[in-house]
Structures are given as structure tokens and as C-alpha cells.
Amino acid sequence: MKDIFTRSVKKVPALMGKTVCNLFFENSTRTRTSFEIAAKRLSADVVNFNLATSSVAKGESILDTARTIQAMGVDYIIMRHSCPGAPHMLSQRVNMSVINAGDGAHEHPTQGLLDTFTIKDRKGKIEGLKIAIVGDILHSRVARSDVYALTRLGAKVSLVGPSTLVPQWFRTLGCEIHNDLKTGIKDADVINLLRIQLERQQSNLFPSIREYRLLYGLDQERMAWAKPDALIMHPGPVNRGVEISQGVADGPQSVIDEQVTNGIAVRMAILYLLAGGTAPPGN
Ligand code: CP
């Protein structure tokens, strides 16, 4: 799929005649736009559902909304919702392909796949790599999806942050837990930084943003604790000056923009495979 990006015409007819509906009940920049571009590069038609002007605002249920979209002949629903399990619930009740674009603090599978793809693309492997995920693990659907993918492929995953934001149960998935940044990212091949999700905090789980930055913010000096060629990743949106300094976010080891580019290829692959595609799409 990535090869298609390098062509002068970045489009193949693989999904011509299919329709994709972006059904986002939460804000998004990257995922929503990425799915739209991915679908268009495969020649599908794309409908962006506008929540604010839809009948959801009048009290229509998710299920009735989805059934209405299905009756219009839509083939895929890309769904983001604040409620964990909402895309799964929908997938059991409609005949369209439902793709989870993030459900509460549960999972963000396409982000997990694009992160894994980016690491494999850069490092040539996943097995044996030391990968540190730093930040608000408790509220992070990205952390969960990354952990499932990366541990299954043989990476050593460390979760780093204050004890209030790093649930101990992650140990059961084969992760190490560190409350100290220096030991958590020591000799890491990859550091994936997460945003503090203030919108999901039910109580004060850390004293202040300033204290968080002092203890867990990654800057140029602290990068010396990891391997010299460590990749710096972030799923976005980035809080510059909190979990990551400006210099590190824009530095030579940062692959943040590459993650976004790779996200389109990964989402093209998902749409294509769900349509029954097997061989690489041609021209
Ligand atoms: N990474 C991610 O999910 O970003 P958005 O919230 O902008 O989609």
C-alpha cells in the first residue's frame, strides 16, 4: 500500500463502488482524516457523518443511526465512541464491516497496527526490542492496543509513569512497570510518549502538569538514557512542553510524522482485506 504513495497518481480502483462512513462520536484529526484518505486512495466513496447536525442530537440511538446508514448501502462504518465496546456492539447487529477507530480507554487497534508497522519498518524487527511507553497508560487505548500487538510479536514492553496512571494489571500482559523515567527508558530502542488525557480524568491522579513534566517529560538530555538510535514516537495529539520537548518532537529520531503517513497505508490494507482482497492491488 505504501508503494502507491510514491506514484504520480496515488490511487487504485480496488474499492470502487464501495462506500465508507466515518461515524465519530469523539473528536479526531489523524484517524478520521487518515481513514478518509485511505478509502479515497482505494477509490471508495466516503461519507463523513456530522454528529452535531445529525439526528443523534435529537436522541436517535447509535443502533438506529447505524441501521439508517446501512439502509443507504454503506459497506464500512469507521466508529469512534467514548464508550468501550460500542464498535463491538454495533458489529454484532449490522451487516456492514465495523472498524474500531478508538473506543473510550479500551482499544485503538489501527493505531496499534500503525505503531507496530512503523517500528518494524525502521528497525527491521519487533522481537527482542525494548519498547518503553511513557505517560497516561490508565486512560490510553493506544497503550492497550500497542501492548497487545508488541508483546505478541516478542517485544519487551515497559510501561512508565506515576503509579496512579500505570495500572499494575498490565503486568499480566507481560509488561514491566516503572515509576521512574530513567530506569523505564534505560537502553530503550523505542520510546512511545502518550498525552495526559485531562478529558478522561475523574480525579486528580497527579499534582500538576508542571510536576508531571519535571518527572516524566522527555527532553534532549534525558534521551541519553535510551539507546543512541532510539525511535521517538507519539500517537498525537502532542502536548509540546509537557510529555515531550519541542526539540525531541521535531528532532532527527522522531518518527511522529512517519506514523501518520504509515497510518494511511495500514488503514488502506485493513479496508482492502475486509473487502476480501488478497493479492496486492494493481493499477
Ligand atoms: N492518534 C489519534 O487517534 O489521533 P486523533 O485523536 O487525532 O484521531
Keywords:
283 residues, alpha/beta, 5-stranded parallel beta sheet, 4-stranded parallel beta sheet, 15% strand, binds phosphoric acid mono(formamide)ester
Give the beta-strand count. Answer: 9
- Content-based structural category: alpha/beta
Report the bound ligands by name, code or SMILES.
phosphoric acid mono(formamide)ester
Q: Roughly how many Å apart are the termini? A: 12 Å
Element pattern in H and E: HEHEHEHEHEHEEHEHEHH
Rough outline: globular
Main-sheet strand order equals: 7-6-5-8-9
**C-alpha Rg (nearest Å):** 19 Å
Overall average pLDDT: 95
Which sheet architecture does the biggest sheet show?
Answer: 5 strands, parallel
DSSP helix fraction: 25-40%
Q: How many H/I helical runs?
A: 10
User: Which percent range describes the beta-strand content?
Assistant: 15-25%
Q: Spans of 5+ residues with little confidence (pLDDT < 50)?
A: none
